[in-house]
Amino acid sequence: MKQSSAHRTIDAIWRIESPKLIAGLTRMVRDVGLAEDLAQDALVIALEKWPISGIPDNPGAWLMTTAKRRAIDLLRRTKVRDRKYAEMAQNMDLYTEEDLNATLDGEIGDDLLRLIFMTCHPVLSQEARVALTLRLLCGLTTDEIARSFLAAEPTVAQRIVRAKKTLSAAKVPFEVPAGEALKERLTAVLEVMYLMFNEGYSATSGEDWIRPLLCREALRLGRVLAEIAPGEGEVHGLVALMEIQSSRFRTRIGAAGEPVLLMDQNRAQWDRLLIRRGLAALERSRKLGRPLGPYALQAAIAACHAEAPTAAETDWIRIAALYEALSRAAPSPIVELNRAVAVAMAFGPAFGLQIADELSGEPALKGYHLLPSVRGDLLVKLGRLEEARAEFERAASMTRNARERELLLNRAAECGTEAAE
Question: Residue 86 class from Cβ within 10 Å (0-12 exposed, 13-18 middle, 19+ buried)?
Fold first, then answer.
């Protein structure tokens, strides 16, 4: 295997396996920072060996065994060797391939949920909780996380380092809490799952438009959480949103892996079972009798799309009204940008462009590629093709995702062709 090809394959494996690896190691060593370091050590060894020896049949098991051996070697060298090594000897027998298959397929799911709750402990700030969990659960780089937060990369990097040190110093337990302790972490946990799903639904960077495995893991964890906290409307709201959005996966990419936008998707291929599950979860949220929160409102928006037989039959007036409610419940520039799209569809592109133009000076959207992308789309509908082309080109220069960049450049080229005619 060529080294460049091997490294791309290893990177893909790492994105899939690293959350499970870190979660399992955290259960063993009870220190999330140390667990991530051990996992990274295993990755370095894989990068050295696999291009020569080939990818093992079970790369996750190989990485876990290697990381555990590194853990034992490290503990042998510490001052607390005797106490720690005795503790590890009781709980950390080296796995065989068969043992690891069972572990990774079974108990590891609970470990991932425990890891989310651990890193969402109130000892950390809300921003630190989310940044750290995106790093560990999604395998995002600090640059990718910074783009999700619309924040500076050095700020996010410092936040993550401090968060790991704080968790270690506070000896935060590796567990899913109960009662009030669960409720006080719920907001951060839901935000983490939401961002985890979004990263899978529309990847920040790389060659792939979507990362379905990441979405499926976020949805699975959301379903587990809904069983643990059945009286929390926003848990059901988030599950509803993820169920309905997941129904579109088969239609979000074309035969060559290119993105297919919502209005161009074949709705006959949307997964009706997932849509029914999502609508049922949304109804559970409504039946709790409290005002819909941000996730339930987004699920209601997704439901409008799911229930429309064709794109032309979409109830855009209702969607615009739901975005208005969402902007009051959870005001943000991104919500306003989405509202601009809904208003344009409901009442005409000029009204949507007015909202988008008002966001042009918003500092948080300075490097956000979807702002010029939305403006470009609205300008096309208004017949202002040269301006639209410039906006699509600007959006393409901002995105880190290769598939999205190609889509935006194609749209820019179409504008140039139509303008020339």
Answer: exposed
